[in-house]
Hints:
CATH topology of the largest domain: Rossmann fold
Order of helices and strands: HEEEEEEHEEHEHEH
Distance between the termini: 37 Å
Shape: globular
Helix content: 10-25%
Strand content: 15-25%
CATH architecture of the largest domain: 3-Layer(aba) Sandwich
Domain NADH:ubiquinone oxidoreductase-like 20kDa subunit: 101-205
Number of strands: 10
Number of helices: 5
Protein name: NADH ubiquinone oxidoreductase, 20 kDa subunit
GO molecular function, one term: 4 iron, 4 sulfur cluster binding
Structural class: alpha/beta
Largest sheet: 6 strands, mixed
Cofactor: [4Fe-4S] cluster
Oligomer: single chain
InterPro entries: Complex_I_20kDa-like, NADH_UbQ_OxRdtase-like_20kDa
Strand order of the largest sheet: 5-10-9-8-6-7
Number of domains: 2
Bound molecules: iron/sulfur cluster
Radius of gyration: 18 Å
Amino acid sequence: MRNTIWFLKGLRNGKKTELFPEADPLEPPLWPSMLEGKGEVECPTKALENGKWNAGKCIACRRCIPQYMPTGNQKTYSLSKFAPSLLSRSFYLYPVDSGTCGACNTELLSILSPQYDASRLNIFLTNTPRHADALVIMGVYTEGMDDVVSKAYEAMPDPKLIITLGACAISGGVIGKAPVLSDKATVEIAGCPPSPYTILEAIVKAKGGGK
Ligand code: SF4
Ligand code: SF4
C-alpha cells in the first residue's frame, strides 16, 4: 500500500529532473561562481593577485566583497585536454577523499540525486579503481595518501583521467599542498565546494562526445 502511495505521488509530481547541461540551470547558486571585480584585496589563498582571479585557489571566503562579486557563472572548471572518444559512453568515477571537510563529497554525490540525475548522462560512481574511467581527488592532500592514490591510479585501465575537485585538491586551499598526481590532472573543477552544475558540466565535457 505504501509503495502505491509513493507511486501515485510520483505520477502527480511529474518529472523533476533538470535538463541541465542541455538547458540553463534552474537556480544557479551565486557561491561559488566566477568572481569579477577590480582592485587589490587581501586574499588568504592568493587567489587574487594583480587583479586576476584564480578559481583553483579561491576558497569562497568572501573577504574580497564588495570589490569582487560573484557573477553566477558556473563555469569554474578547466579541461587540459579532452578525453578520447572511448570515454564517451558509460563513464565511471572513483572518488578518493584525501582530506575534505565533507562538502566536496556532498556536492559530488548530489549529481546522482533526482534533481541532476547523472545516470541519464551515463555517469556513475564505482567503488573499485579497476572499473573506473576517472579518479576524482577531493580534499587537502596529506602525504599518507600518496601511496593510496598512486596505487588506485595504477589499477585503473587506460584510457583514464584524473579530476581534481575543489580548491583543496587543486591548490591545497588554505593549507597549500596540492595532490601528488595533480600534474596529471586532466580536469580541474574549482569551487569550495563546486556546485553540482559545475561538476556535471565539467564531467560531461571531459568524457567527450555525446551522452
Ligand atoms: S572569496 Fe576567493 S578570491 Fe575572494 S578573498 Fe576569499 S579566497 Fe580570495
Ligand atoms: S575545497 Fe572547500 S568544500 Fe572542498 S574540501 Fe576543501 S574546504 Fe571543503
